[in-house]
Structures are given as structure tokens and as C-alpha cells.
Amino acid sequence: xxxxxxxxxxxxxxxxxxxxxxxxxxxxxxxxxxxxxxxxxxxxxxxxxxxxxxxxxxxxxxxxxxxxxxxxxxxxxxxxxxxxxxxxxxxxxxxxxxxxxxxxxxxxxxxxxxxxxxxxxxxxxxxxxxxxxxxxxxxxxxxxxxxxxxxxxxxxxxxxxxxxx
Length: 165
What we know:
Blueprint: H1 2-35, H2 47-58, E1 75-79, E2 91-99, E3 102-111, E4 115-124, E5 135-143, E6 152-155, E7 161-164
């Protein structure tokens, strides 16, 4: 009888040991899943960032954007800094075509491996008072994160190449 009693308790002990080890393994997995979501939510892209990504993806087959958008003003041109030669250029000057009614204006860029996409931007005055819609142009310096190298400078609004590195 003793032999039959031991044979019944051994399988029961094995089952309990396996169940306990499975519970420990599962509890470890649950803890790791709880720490995954600690990063901040992704930032929503603005109109310029979406356009720059689209240009980088579709280059050179890019169509101009329709209408005037404050975040995507067309550029009149782009220039290398005077006296700078070679591939180490880290600043370009663009001519922004903006409204004479804009209280503030400027330019910004987004860089990829083969392109530097640049746009002008403007902020209009309030609707109070008179303002002509005459085009004004001003030169704005754009600092690049990396050297221009062989990359092409492209206007985000028109999709046209302005400058070749």
C-alpha cells in the first residue's frame, strides 16, 4: 500500500510545481507589458512636415500646393552664403515671398538624405484696419542640421528645385 500512496502524491506534487512555475512566468510577462507605454504620444505633424515627407517620398515628381497657406509660402530663390565653397555649407539664404500684411514671417526646413525641403511662413495682421495684399520679399537665413553636401534644396510650396549642393 505504501507504494501506491507514493505514486499518487508524486504526480500531484509535479502538477503543483509546474503550476507555480507557470504563474511566476506569467506574472513576469505582465510586469514587462505594463512598462511599455511610458513614452509620450507621437507629435502630430503640421502641414509643412507632411508636405516635406511627401516631397522626399515622391521626388522628383512633385506638384505645387494649391492656394496660399500661411505655413507653406513659396520661395523666390535660394543662395549659398557668399564666399563659402565646398560641401561644408550649413546655412543658406532664401527669399520668402510674403504678404505686406504679414506681421511676422520666416523660413524653416526639413532635411533628409538627398533633399533639404524649405518653406516660407507668415502670420497676418488682424482683420482690423486696412492692408494691401501686395507681395513683399525678404531674405531669411536657414541654418541646416547637417552639411548641405550634394543635397538639393526644394521649395515646399512649388516642389521646384532652388539650389543644388
